Amino acid sequence: MTARRAAHACAVATLLVAASAAAAPPVSADDAPALPVVSPTPQHMTRTGDDAPLPQHAELVVGDATDKPARDLVTATLRAHGVRDIDVRTSASGNAPLTVLLGPATRADIAEALHGTDVPTQDEGYAVRVGEHTVALGGTDATGQFYAAQTLKQLVRKGTIAGASVSDFPSMRLRGSIEGFYGPPWTGAERLDQMDFLGQVKSNTYVYAPKDDPYHRDKWREPYPADKLAQLGELVDRARANHVRFTFAVSPGGSVCYSDPADVKALTAKLQAMYDLGVRSFSVPLDDISYTKWNCAGDQTKFGAPGRGPAAKAQVGLLNTIQHDFIATHDGANPLQMVPTEYGDLTDTAYKQEIRGNLDRHVEVMWTGTDVVPPEITNDQAQKASELFGRKVFVWDNYPVNDFGRTSGRLLLAPYDKREPGLSGHLSGIVSNPMNQEAASKLAVFTMSDFSWNDRGYDRDRSARQSALHLAGGDPRVADAVQTFVDLNHMAPTFGSTPWQPQSPILSAELDKFWKAYDSDPKAAIRTFTPTATRIGRVPAVLRAGVPDQLFLHDAGPWLDSTDLWGKALGHGLAALTAIDAHDADTAATERAAMDKAAYAASHITIDPAEHHQPGPVKIADPFLGNFVSKVQDLHDASMGLKPLRQLALNKTATQSSDYNWNGGYPFNASKSADGDRFDFSTTSGKEAQPWWQVDLGSVADLEHIDVYNRTDCCADRTKDYYVLVSDEPFTGTLADQLSKPGVWAHHETAQAGGPTVIPAQAHGRYVRVWLANDKPVELNMAEVEVYGRARA
């Protein structure tokens, strides 16, 4: 043994046997490099001394209570950073240049090595202390050990382990994701990927609740087929390896007969099959159902006429039975979770009063906030919800889910925001309802996990950067491109017209600055904005070459393709502006045509229906990229003496062959298809054949194209096999009359795309009519009709 090796051994022995009375002297802030950023943000982390070098040889000291996934992770981390020889032992030899102690924080050698670092008492807590030759990783439980190993992975950099002391625990008990969206469920590979990801970000909960799994909802009484059960078993095992609670949800509310013992037995049998598979967490969601009707006569007899109070009594009876007779009698089962029918408001009702007064106190109640997609969640709101339901609520946050109309065509990538620090005092936890695109969801879920771990220490910008670096495999240049891509896909809609996260806050500000500068100095403005256009254009290639996550690249593929084309459109647009300023008409025309071609192609890249149930084109940085193209078109038209192309139908007088009023209080009149909102819609009554909708432009105009948007939430096949007519004079008579009338321009369309169906219309006229050709009574149901042309007056 060399003298240096002997000195190292002596230092280790002194630490482990003699219990040094003082920690290593802290390195001054001026001399020591900053500690790595650890995510989720630890409750407490400080520097304790110099970074510990990573040698080629190390020993890992474990015991009977050492968590195996934590041990495997520590071993993999050391090997990934050049430690070739790892000697696994039950006690330190004193001969290794680096000793890693892993196990319960109460184990004697770990407790001594952690001297000076507080050991949390909370569940899933852990402590880490890095000395010159010794690293101690102690957990308050097995999960805490695993999280200590995840933190160690982030402390390693450039051949060293940062000299840090970490005392950490989760602020919220439940953290993770709920596969609870409508549309194509995740694949088996995507779910396995999600389990690994949740483990990495220290989230402990995954709820299996895909709305389109028939055995979860419609066929809830039926057992899973053997092959499906085997897939779920593999998923349960992967979750366990990542210290994630696999929570099985079954949603019987659409057809259950609460008073029928056979249905209670069927539900219990479904849960028992999953318990036998290794599941220990269960949920019975009762969301998105009606409590104004019963599914069987027996419930009417037992609970009375349907309504809020009787529905709650029936539900409470079922849930209490499951909690008392199944959960409480099964070893290791966690308290039952449920989703109330009233899950998104703060109104006290007979329903909530029954839940509050009689639902077993152990049952976890989920709540989505003040709406299905709330613009914010405050401490006051969470406190009120807890009072209404008689317990801390468990937030099902509908972000970044993209299964509703206003999310059509979007990836929702913005970091978590507008959830108030301090919510951990009112909530039992937060789970994200992610997108149909599992891997693309990880950017947002990463930041949500950061918040739920330590809401008071959450920093949105820091978390966003860490999320980007996580996806980029730690490469800062790739992370920069990730963040540009996030900005292009930043919008987070609510169910109303105002999003709770804005679209493209960075790009929109840069474009606004560009156009203001362009008015006074076009050359300087173009020169300043060109790097932005170049950066956007390079994003797809940088991500495809640098992001290791192939599932993410698959999910984001159509949006990357569209970004590539929009980048080209920006470049050609800037070249067209340069040529206009130089009075080079030929180059301006060439560049304008290239811009138009790229923008058209970008806006017509569509979502694979196998990937998502909402058809239609993908959306990128809208409306800002489209507005840039329109502005360039206007400037080029003006340079040629042409009037600008405009959307002429907006807020003009619209009529239809008949009106429809749903339930007497929800009119779907013709104006809804000319109001600029592509997510509300008009509809005719469906009582007549060949229904029509039309708009009066107010004066004759020269038209270039008409864009027809069908609904994206459903019913995209309702506007098909139709004619679009343009006329100077009002329409009279039948469809056949108009098709044979001189001076009427007509186009026959059979496309059913969610929108837009772009119809070239080299025509002139004042009146535009969409007329279904169906000879049988049918609805005419459209979201929006946009008429683009040049006014003559």
Structure description:
Mean pLDDT is 93; it is low at 1-29. This protein is α/β, with parallel strands linked by helices. The strands form six sheets. It has an eight-stranded parallel barrel. Strands 1-10-6-7-5-3-4 form a seven-stranded mixed beta sheet. Helix content is 37%, strand content 19%. Helix 9 (308-326) runs parallel beside helix 10 (350-358), helix 12 (438-453) crosses helix 13 (460-471) and helix 15 (505-520) packs antiparallel against helix 16.
Biggest beta sheet attributes: 8 strands, parallel, barrel
The low-confidence parts are 1-29
* Strand arrangement in the largest pleated sheet: 11-12-13-14-15-16-17-18
C-alpha end-to-end distance: 97 Å
What percent of residues adopt helix (DSSP H or I)?
A: 25-40%
Tag the structure with descriptive keywords:
793 residues; alpha/beta; 8-stranded parallel β-barrel; 7-stranded mixed beta sheet; 20 helices; 37% helix
What is the fold's blueprint, element by element?
Blueprint: H1 3-18, E1 44-47, E2 52-53, E3 57-61, H2 68-80, E4 85-89, E5 99-104, H3 108-113, E6 126-130, E7 134-139, H4 142-155, E8 156-157, E9 160-161, E10 164-168, E11 174-179, H5 188-200, E12 205-208, H6 226-241, E13 245-249, H7 261-276, E14 281-285, H8 297-303, H9 308-326, E15 337-339, H10 350-358, E16 364-367, H11 379-389, E17 393-400, E18 427-433, H12 438-453, H13 460-471, H14 476-488, H15 505-520, H16 522-546, H17 550-581, H18 585-602, H19 624-639, E19 646-647, E20 653-656, E21 661-662, E22 666-667, E23 682-683, E24 692-709, E25 722-727, H20 735-739, E26 745-749, E27 757-772, E28 781-782, E29 784-791
Parallel strand pairs: 3-4, 3-5, 5-7, 11-12, 11-18, 12-13, 13-14, 14-15, 15-16, 16-17, 17-18
Antiparallel strand pairs: 1-10, 2-9, 6-7, 6-10, 8-9, 19-29, 20-24, 21-22, 23-28, 24-27, 24-29, 25-26, 25-27
Helix pairs in contact: 2-4, 5-6, 5-12, 9-10, 12-13, 13-14, 14-16, 15-16, 16-17, 17-18, 17-19, 18-19
